[in-house]
Amino acid sequence: MKLGDVFLMSARNVRKGGVKAALCILAICVGMTSVCTISAAGTAAAETVSAEIDRIGIKGLAFYSESDAYTVDMECMAAVKNIGGVKAAMPLSLNYASARLRSMQFSALAIGCGQELPDIFNIELLHGEHISGEDIRTRARVALIDDEMAMLAYSRANVTGKSLSISFGGITESFVIKGVISSQKSGLDMIAGGGIPHMIYLPYSTVDGISTARTSDKIAVSLERNDSAETAAEKAVRTLENLTGAGFSYENLDGYADKLVNITDTVSLLISAVASIAVVVGGIGVMNSMVSAVEARTREIGIYLAVGARRRDIVGLFLSEACMLCLIGGACGAALSMLIFAAASRVFSLHIALSSSMLLYGLGVPVICGLLFGILPACRAAMLTPIEAIREE
Predict the structure, then answer these.
(1) Residue 115's pLDDT band (boundaries 50, 70, 90)?
(2) What is the pTM of this model?
(3) Which of 196, 218, 246 is where one domain is finished?
(4) Is there a domain that residue 9 lies in?
(5) Within 13 Å of residue 226, how many CA atoms lie on the same side as its CB?
(6) Is residue 236 part of a domain?
(7) What is the per-residue pLDDT across 164-217, written as a single tens digit (0 to 9) for each?
(8) For residues 205 and 248, what is the distance between their CA atoms, to the nearest angstrom?
(9) Does any domain span residue 58?
């Protein structure tokens, strides 16, 4: 048989399959819809996490002393800034706090920082000004808050000049809002499922003057190039240990971001693997349909063999039929996934797209599935002898 004849006969047999063929196609369609939808959603989630981390600026290095008595001093800061590859450095403190703006109470993370803040964290200033060197020197009672806090309290983003009360370490102080930044909380809330506090930035010297506890015990560093992180970190640790005599450690914030994206990818892969069970079930259905087709067309197979068809032609005929069923189901599944993504984009404003690689996957996997689950019935059909097959009722 010619290859074209095999495909034409397979297409005719699929059309004549009726309900059985339709059910096989439906099973593969459901399985591929599940796999494509989950995989594409997982990829979109990983991209969203990565974009959100880039937006809020979780990058660079954070150094901290293993001694509870260490507090950042200017000599240490100057030494770290002079290390090759370091773009900017500043003292850093993190304090859980309660903030009151107008009549509303907020859970907050009070972050003591320096004037290098915009050079280290990716802060988008919407209104007002950043914390300045003068604010650090005079221990000014100024703060940067996010626009989400401002909108909740005043129904507008520009609230510079307004008063803000912050309580941490058992002490409550009043601050003037110097600037309003784009919220870093909204994206993290989506990733973590809620419960992320609002981030409020204060001059680190002000925090040190208010709190009786050890506050500015970390140094945040941004680098000229990310690929020099390990070298710069090791130099900074040696420099700080030589200056202070205390042990130091560091955290690569880029590494945490990468781990978070990898976790998202792994979860997506595991869920896709579970969803692929539906494709296997569909493939078993195709194999069952092919076994039934062999039994129903035994005399037809005998006639093909009697008029000169080779056994490989019979194998090719049934394999192509199985692959055709699976390919149609896979194409329908990919098309249904695209419709789901279009509806999700319109209703929920989500930007999920089926990539070209996923489309190839949606078409390639069903073909492989057809080959795997069609080979046994095809070989069984090819093993029939012409005389016995023709005599079969």
Answers:
(1) very high
(2) 0.60
(3) 246
(4) yes
(5) 10
(6) yes
(7) 999 987 889 999 999 999 887 655 555 555 567 888 999 999 988 886 555 677
(8) 22
(9) no
The 10s digit of each residue's pLDDT in 295-333 is 777 777 777 777 777 888 888 888 888 888 888 888 888
Q: Name residues whose C-beta falls within 8 Å of residue 139's C-beta, 6 or more positions apart in sequence.
A: 203, 205, 206, 209
- Worst-scoring range by mean pLDDT, 26-35, 76-85, 356-365? 356-365
Q: Which of 111, 119, 65, 64 is nearest to 89 (CA)?
A: 119
Report yes or no: 61 and 223 within 8 Å, Cβ to Cβ. Answer: yes
As for how many domains the chain has, the answer is 2
15 and 74 in a single domain? The answer is: no
Residue 198 and residue 75 share a domain: yes
Same structural domain, 204 and 271: no
Show the 3-state SS of 104-161.
EEEEEEEEEECCCHHHHCCCCEEEECCCCHHHHHHCCCEEEEEHHHHHHHHCCCCCCC
Average pLDDT over residues 39-50: 71
Contact 20, 296 (CB under 8 A): no
Same domain, 240 and 213: yes
User: 246, 278, 299 — which closes off a domain?
Assistant: 246
* One domain for residues 286 and 160: no
Query: Helices H, strands E: what count in the chain?
Result: 15, 10
In which domain, by residue range, is 41 found?
3-52+262-391
Q: Collect all residues with Cβ–Cβ distance below 8 Å to 330 and sequence separation of at least 6.
A: 28, 29, 32, 362, 363, 365, 366, 367
- Whether 95 and 183 map to the same domain: the answer is yes
Does 109 or 169 have the greater pLDDT score? 109
Residue 204: which of 120, 275, 287 has the closest Cα? Answer: 120
- Tens of pLDDT, residues 213-250: 556 778 888 888 766 677 888 888 888 888 887 888 88
